[in-house]
Amino acid sequence: MWQKISIIIPVLNEAETIQSFLQALQPLRKQGHEVVLVDGHSNDDTCALARPLVDRMFSSQPGRARQQILGAKMSTGQVLLFLHADTKLPEKAEQDILSALAQGFFWGRFDVQLSGSHWLFRVIEKMMNWRSCLTGIATGDQSLFVSKMLYNDVGGMPAIELMEDIEFSKRLLKFCKPACLKSIVITSSKRWEKNGILRTILFMWTLRLQYFFGIKPEVLVKKYYP
């Protein structure tokens, strides 16, 4: 049975790239899927530029988790795909997702590739994808997808300020393992290049360790978005 995919995109001040990003999703709209954009009160032209290229647009307080929660609530598809505005889906994303669901998976993620050319990015990608498949924990950069039925069964995405992707994966894992798709999503390495690759690795692992040892997401988010 054909299933409609709702592509849920949280955005904030993405006017510079939002049109080219959304243009790449138009073939999916033509195939009957929907693009749901949730703006976190951008103060640029993001909404005006995006409006003709999406099916549904909503506004919420900024925060990736709360924006995605609203998008999921207002979506009309049987499958939810959470996509960051700096990430490009593979050409056969629809077939890959629907095939995984037909094989009995209820959620999953793609392999990720960082956009930069530095050789360290190739190592980071391989480790990210290997770790994710081994643990069943997906990151937002891997474009997580889930049946709306399972999404509702686990209580949706947790409304926390940071690490929502990790906690959401943990909720889903209590029900079943993910489909680890080998198709590649390409995500921006801009943050890594701006702050330094090794420094960013150390920073991200420090945040993860602090979260593991009980530091609250509302504290960590102030470090992530200083």
What does this structure look like?
This protein is α/β, with parallel strands linked by helices. It has one domain (about 5-225): Spore Coat Polysaccharide Biosynthesis Protein SpsA, Chain A. About 45% of the residues lie in helices and about 20% in strands. It is built from eleven helices and eight strands. The chain has an eight-stranded mixed beta sheet. The radius of gyration is 17 Å and the shape is globular.
Structural category: alpha/beta
Largest sheet: 8 strands, mixed
Helix content range: 40-55%
CATH class group: Alpha Beta
Shape: globular
State the helix count.
11
Strand content: 15-25%
Rg: 17 Å
Order of neighbouring strands in the sheet with most strands? 3-2-1-4-7-6-8-5
Domains counted in the coordinates: how many?
Answer: 1
Number of separate strands: 8
What is the CATH architecture annotation? Answer: Alpha-Beta Complex
TL;DR of this structure?
By secondary structure, the protein is an alpha/beta fold. The chain has 11 helices and 8 strands.
